[in-house]
Amino acid sequence: MRAADSVAEARALVLARDGGPGLPGEPVHQFQCRDCRKTSRASEGDPLLAEVWALKHTRLHPAHRAYCAVTTSFWRVDPDPGAGEEAGR
Ligand SMILES: [Zn+2]
């Protein structure tokens, strides 16, 4: 496939946040301890609860000081409803 074909194909699609039923409306934040792999509860929107969990985890386990911050958001790709109009111009 030529690059021009790939770009034209991508223009016929739209990438957008997915706020469908059952999905959180905001990104979900979690912290995971890199020493023991324990993970905070998921916090929708505001990462503060996950950050506080990391502080408390290190207080309980002083040698555990390294974390991964994981932020998850949901996206979907759909056909561009205006793509057919551009082709007809
Ligand atoms: Zn830990």
Detailed description of the structure:
The model has no long low-confidence stretch (mean pLDDT 89). This protein has helices at 3-11, 48-60, 83-87, and strands spanning 13-17, 28-33, 43-44, 67-72, 75-79. The protein has a three-stranded antiparallel sheet. It has a domain at 26-77. It is of the alpha+beta class. It is built from three helices and five strands, in the order αβββαββα. The site of zinc ion has 7 residues, from loops.
Compile the SSE list and pairings:
Blueprint: H1 3-11, E1 13-17, E2 28-33, E3 43-44, H2 48-60, E4 67-72, E5 75-79, H3 83-87
Antiparallel strand pairs: 1-5, 2-3, 2-4
The structure holds zinc ion.
How would you describe this structure in keywords?
89 residues; alpha+beta; 3-stranded antiparallel β-sheet; two-stranded antiparallel ribbon; 5 strands; binds zinc ion
State the total count of DSSP E strands: 5
Helix count equals 3
Radius of gyration: 20 Å
- Percent of residues in beta strands: 25-35%
Helix residue percentage: 25-40%
Principal-axes geometry comes out as: elongated
Low-confidence stretches: none
Biggest sheet architecture: 3 strands, antiparallel
Q: Distance between termini?
A: 25 Å
The small molecules bound here are: zinc ion
**SSE pattern:** HEEEHEEH
Structural class: alpha+beta
Instruction: Report the average pLDDT across residues.
Output: 89
Q: How do the strands line up in the largest sheet?
A: 3-2-4
Short description:
The protein is of the alpha+beta class.
